[in-house]
């Protein structure tokens, strides 16, 4: 997604919002190009390499969650035990709470990933529908 | 044979002590400066002449910037615009540190937990400060998921607090562990090439096997270097989003 800003070239403001070319005769060409771009984007299915890369990113992200949360929980409990003199009960309790926290982190990360995947899927099918409409107009 | 851990040793170039703290100029500091210089060169080459139709360098810089803008926009929304420079700097710095660590005879700064934890601790403190400044006491609602029945809160709130406190650790250990493990693997397999060659006899003919493995691992490590920089920046966005928009 491009975010264009207005620019000023040789003292003339050039609005870059929307289309740069204003020639009405070429408007049809531009619309046609836009439809073809949408169609090309819709055709792009993620290939094996893309899936593998995102899986690598995801797996290294999830692997740590449970272990670290458990250790943090255990460390908090151990320190509280030392302060309150309740050895070893709080350490055990917080170790379990940490484990639960790790699972919650993991679930949230997976949910976020699923949402992103569904959103990408929806965008692709919307692009496909748009491209289909453009094709219909051409044949009429 | 040299130990595969030798590559992580920090060597001092000049001893320096500031207010009783050891602030010597080390190889870690040197490679951070090299990374900063490379980033500066890259940006300078790209932005020397900002043309309407970008050249190659400008297209590279703009492409990277658009990538970060898209990531921040997707994860934080319009309120995140102020953090684009921070995320952009963080991503580029970690990416370049990871990548120059793969060159022979270089030093991987991100393979030190002290460095990655410094990044993560800064981000953690930043998230808490931004959350408290923007939302005051409402920031604590982050630890109370909406629509939780109150008897469960006794259990949920400590879990949420532990989950929040574990963030800087997961963030830093992930980057550090990936870089360290990859570099040790590379060194071990490269060492096999030499030991097989030195073994003599029929064994010497086996040396291409670890050589091929080393090349394959190197390609994987290139991917890991980029992916880990991306994951670090992405998670920073997600954590900032919690502080800015108070969402889970």
Q: What would a concise description of this structure say?
A:
By secondary structure, chain A is mainly alpha-helical.
Report the β-strand fraction of chain B as a percent range: under 5%
Supply the helix-strand structural class of chain B.
mainly alpha
**Order of strands, widest sheet of chain A:** 1-2
Instruction: List the total number of helices of chain A.
Output: 3
Order of neighbouring strands in the sheet with most strands of chain B: 1-4
Let me know the largest β-sheet of chain B: 2 strands, antiparallel
Distance between the termini of chain A: 31 Å
Keywords:
heterodimer; A: 140 residues; mainly alpha; two-stranded antiparallel ribbon; 3 helices; 2 strands; rod-shaped; B: 248 residues; 7 helices; 68% helix
SSE map:
The complex is a heterodimer of chains A (140) and B (248).
Chain A: E1 7-9, E2 12-14, H1 27-43, H2 48-84, H3 89-139
Antiparallel strand pairs in A: 1-2
Chain B: E1 12-14, E2 17-18, E3 21-22, E4 25-26, H1 27-47, H2 56-75, H3 84-100, H4 113-135, H5 150-165, H6 167-199, H7 208-245
Helix pairs in contact in B: 1-2, 1-3, 2-3, 3-7, 4-6, 4-7, 6-7
